[in-house]
Amino acid sequence: MIKIAIAREVEVGENRVAMSPDVVTRLIKQGVEVLVETGAGERAFFADEAYEAVGARVVADKAQLWGEADVLLKVSPPSEGDAEIDLLRLGSVLISFLDPLREPARMQRLAGKQVTAFSMELIPRTTRAQSMD
Questions:
Q1: Which of 9, 96, 97, 103 could form a Cys-Cys staple with 14, CB 3.0–4.6 A?
Q2: Helix or strand or coil: residue 76?
């Protein structure tokens, strides 16, 4: 079973969360296991209990969450001097805003961990791509 993890944002002023409980419900119905870092939705007004109510597993240990994830969702790029990259499992997938053209060193670190990275700001803003939102 694929494990998708939703990380808590650590960047000051970032109030978004990568996925709402409503979307989590749809993934769980399709047989996906969803892990949510404690407090991930708090600044977007989604309590941990809202994620648990739809079947997600709330995980307090950041290293455990990042290490277990097949796919990790995050709004802001890995931070803390990119130390979060070290927490990603070898060969996992990261979906986030990554600013790859201005942060080639970050992309090299991800490549070194064999992480497949999808940079959300590079998805075209066309009608056909709107479903990616």
A1: 9
A2: coil
